[in-house]
Amino acid sequence: MILRVLFLLILPLGLVAKTIDVCPTCAATTIRQGIALAKTGDEVLVHPGTYREGNIIIDKSIILKGIDGPTVDGEDQYEIFTIKASGVTVEGFHLVNAGKSTLKDMAAIRVDHQRHFSICENKVENAQFGIYLAYGFDGIVENNELKSNARDEVSSGNGVHCWYAKRIFIAHNTIRQHRDGIYLEFTDDSHIVDNRSEGNLRYGLHFMFSNRDVYAYNTFIDNGAGVAVMFSKKIDMLYNRFEHNWGRSSYGLLLKEIYDARLEHNQFLSNTIGILMEGATRIDYRHNRFKRNGWAVQMTGGCIDNHFEANAFQSNALDMVVNSNVNNNTFNGNYWSEYTGYDLDRDGYGDVPHRPVKLFSYITSQTPETIVLLRSFFVDLLNFSEKVSPALTPANVADERPLMQMPEI
Amino acid sequence: MISIHQLHKSYGKLPVLKGISLEFNAPGSVTAILGPNGSGKTTLMKSILGMVLPDQGDILVEGRSIKGQWAYRHQIDYLPQIARFPENLRVRELIAFLQDLRQGTTREAELIRMFGLEEQLDKRLNNLSGGTKQKVNLVLAFMYDSPVLILDEPTSGLDPIAMLRLKEFIQAERKRGKLILITTHIIHFVEEMADEIVFLLEGNIYFRGSQEELKARFGETSLERAIAAILGAGKTEMNGKASPSLFNSSTLQLLNS
Amino acid sequence: MKKIFQYTLYDLIRSRWTLFYLGFFLLLTTVLLAFSGDISKVVISLMNVVLILCPLIATMFGVMYAYNSREFTELLLAQPIKRTSIFWGQYFGLGVSLSLSLAIGIGGPFLFYGLFATGEIWNFFILIANGVMLSLIFSGLAFLIALRNENRIKGFGLAILTWLFFAVIYDGIMLLLLVFFREYPLEPLALSLSLFNPIDLSRILILLKLDISALMGYTGAVFEKFLGTGLGITIAFFVLLFWVGLPALAIRRVAGRKDF
């Protein structure tokens, strides 16, 4: 928000702006002509119609605005808008058939080494990359709707792609059927808020080598996997929904080589794996809900200092798999629907510790095919005997103060 | 009507019937099949009904082999030895069930009256006494009015009145031309009812003929003594081959009953 | 067969045990629905009950009924009807009476809580269908055991062992095999082993309906192909049907050769 306000404050500082209209009967009949006629600070209004133009380069600070969603057709060959000036707004367009290439990344809107851009209210259909920010700084990507038809990872591109971008605000967008919904690489200090990423081939949201970012209030449904946060630091993940990321090797959230992060108030619903962790360090998990996942949490090698507090684990097939020695990972005051203990002193916490790692979880992590025995009576017996006297499961993975009642999340 | 040829049957290694051949051709007669326990009486009867499958030999009913057949059982009414029925059915329902199963006209009303079962019709079978169950058993067996009657221990558990009624009924059926086969341990019943006696011993027919012939053959004045004589003779004839306990106990049983 | 079936059913649905069984399911389902807000949890709890209890009760009822009706069966055998009709009639009568208890016992409370209007109807249906098939399979096996063993104590013992084998021991052996041979491709083994145990098959069918298919598919392509698609469900269903037919055929074979 702050970025946006600053940006709005900067705009009026320009010259006295004029308005240029683009329509078949106007002085400018193409968008390219409109831009050519405009000077810094001008507003180019594109009226309804279909404009078969590609490679439109915006090389001055202008507001390019579609009235009632004019269609710009890239005819499967061209990038549509390339922003090569700072302080550009592209708003209200319906961008179709931007070019696709396997040799270079082609986008419907590209920002190339610029700052203070605003890309809003556009509808992008059938593009390889939707909005591509290469070295884009202090920009806004808001209220866009992106839909492609990605079939395989090689030929498809990402919805919003950030590459060496800083301080970007990506909000209220809907992204469907791209490779990754939103992709961030070397992108720091950015906010990703209230987006809906659905049915994307690979990830709903993907971080690589990006630090100090926040994503909150987003919904990730039915993606190959929900969100992958890899090789990144200081990421805040708040109030997101990870839903039905379902299928072989699918998960709601992947944390791989990530440090100092915070996960709060997220909902993990019906994912094959809620959170898959590899080398996740110093992460706090609070007030998250894990419901009806296959595995709520899988901790594999080298996870240190993960702290789970006041989360709710409800009706997951298996709550927890930990298949390495535990390094100071703690569980405290979580709610476990499988907890069978009692609370005699009525303080709201169970009097006996809960061990979330079952023997069967351990067995499946060693021999995955044994999953066909899930919920069989024999396995229940096995789990029960292991619970009574732990032999194979890590004894120190235990919640000493399990919540008796499901917390509000 | 029924002819049995060279019937062999053993249960495991234990032979029960060792080549029995018999003809039952006289309608309007009562044949008592006697013998100690384990002599093969029940096995013989069950073979006729197809419940026991013979190892060798054949049984013809009305001139046709019963092997693999079932429809011939329309000719036969059978009274099983032990009367146990589905516990939760009422007497009326059970009768209806068996009528339904076999179709055709039945005469259960007459029989119910005869054994005084009117009061019991709406009771559940698990609430009946042993004697009453046997009466139900008799009703079920007799209601079809088939030409052959096979009765396995018909008198067990009956009170004197019912016993009397049963005897009258069997006499009446004989007069109506039925072929009646009975096993029983009660000698007086045999004396009173049987036109002919088949005595089985160790899986063979030891004797077949009328009561008079039996008595004459052993020079005894009563049937009871004649039978005792058979068993005694059987014992010596067998040279102790059979287990003495079998004979002792069954002899006692025969004499005491 | 139809008449024997009718009267067996008529007899059995008035038996104390059937009523007790019905009452148990009514109570259990009502309590679960009343105290758990999460329907999927209720279905999973019921699944455990159906998978363990249905076979157990069917087995016990099966031997008990077969032995108790032994004398009456003799009376029936003396009637002009085929042997197969008698035993199939009794077998299906028993199976159906158990199934009715189950369906009404679980279906009643579901109906009462108005859950048929929701998407849970399929879960309910699959649960009942599996319970019915397990009841049929295990009462059939019990019947078979009772037919083959004159000695009641031995028959009861064998029946319980059969149940124990399919409900517990089999899975134990399977788990051991899978863990022992984990260096090898295990998916075909795991799948084919599951096919030979009706309880495992039912469990997998119910789990697949409960949307754990992806979990099953997690391990590899064969699982995914078999369990993640309609094909697997169809095959599992037909194998289960085959399992229902198996005791029926065996009963016919054994009954045809047996002396009474």
The fraction of residues in strands of chain A falls at: 35-45%
Helical content of chain C stands at over 70%
**What would the average pLDDT of chain C be, to the nearest integer?**
86
- Low-confidence segments of chain C, ≥5 residues, pLDDT <50? none
Got a strand count of chain A? 37
Largest interface: A-C, 32 and 43 residues
Largest sheet of chain A: 24 strands, parallel
CATH H-level name of chain A... which superfamily? Answer: Single-stranded right-handed beta-helix, Pectin lyase-like
Q: Describe the main β-sheet of chain C briefly.
A: none
Distance between the termini of chain A: 25 Å
- The helix/strand series of chain C, from N terminus to C terminus, equals HHHHHHHHHHH
Please tally the helical runs of chain A, counting DSSP H or I stretches of 4 or more residues. 4
Q: Structural class of chain A, please?
A: mainly beta
Q: Could you tell me the radius of gyration of chain C in angstroms?
A: 19 Å
| Overall morphology of chain A | elongated
Summarize the structure.
The complex is a heterotrimer of chains A (409), B (257) and C (260). In chain A, 9% of the residues lie in helices and 38% in strands.
